[in-house]
Amino acid sequence: MRAVTASSAVAPEYVRYVAAARSQGRLGPERALGDGEVGERVHLDPRSAAQLMRVAALRSAGLFRPTKRTEIAWVDGQDELAVLVGELDLQLADGLVVVVVPVRCDQAHGHVLVTFVVGSPDRPRGLYAATETRPRGPAVVVDTWGESLVAFGWQCLLGLVTGMAGATGKDARGNVMVPVEVAANADGLFVVPMGRHRFGGSTGLLGTRR
């Protein structure tokens, strides 16, 4: 039996969001899906998506348990950068997700915008995203940390959609759902869960007790 650790469990914030959506009739009841079977689309309004993205950001930094920390520090030789994960935000438009990362260092204090082109609810593209080679933000920050900030933004977005899919329940073999599609428009972020294919093995995420 696999041990349940903080890093392998679906974040309780995601579980509570899905539970509230079901109690309010915005999402259907939990149903065990078969291999490759697609579930109901989960809608996150822009405000909730931003709040839950901050949970993903903390988990991406290795902070899996409740914490009052609002920033993390990156160090590369003599270079240091503070990433203000507690103020991380999202900008959503048709087929676009912009992760707004507040940063601070000795030379600059501002925001880095990492843009991902995804599908829209009307034109889904699966779990696919394209991004710019260089994010937008203070040059002194982007010159040194641009690649890392793009990777961090993607890790946060992927962590959010993976966690939301996992929060919808388990498939017929007892594994939490995995995301098969992410889409965005001005109304929010949309995640479609799927029962894991048998050849994919077991997911690393485990359910969280409500």
User: Into how many domains do the coordinates divide?
Assistant: 1
Quickly give the structural class.
alpha+beta
> Uncertain segments of ≥5 residues (pLDDT<50)?
1-7
How far is the first residue's CA from the last residue's CA? 21 Å
The outline comes out as globular
Provide the gyration radius in Å: 17 Å
| β-strand amount | 25-35%
Number of helices: 3
Largest sheet geometry: 6 strands, antiparallel
The SSE string, one letter per element, is HEHEEEEEEHEE
Number of strands: 9
What integer is the average pLDDT?
89
- Estimate the helix proportion, in percent: 25-40%
Please characterize this protein's 3D structure.
The chain has 210 residues and is α+β, with helices and mostly antiparallel strands. It has one domain. Helix content is 27%, strand content 25%. The strands form two sheets. Strands 2, 3, 4, 5, 6 and 7 form a six-stranded antiparallel sheet that branches. β8 and β9 form a beta hairpin. The chain starts with 11 loop residues before the first helix and ends in a 16-residue tail after the last strand.
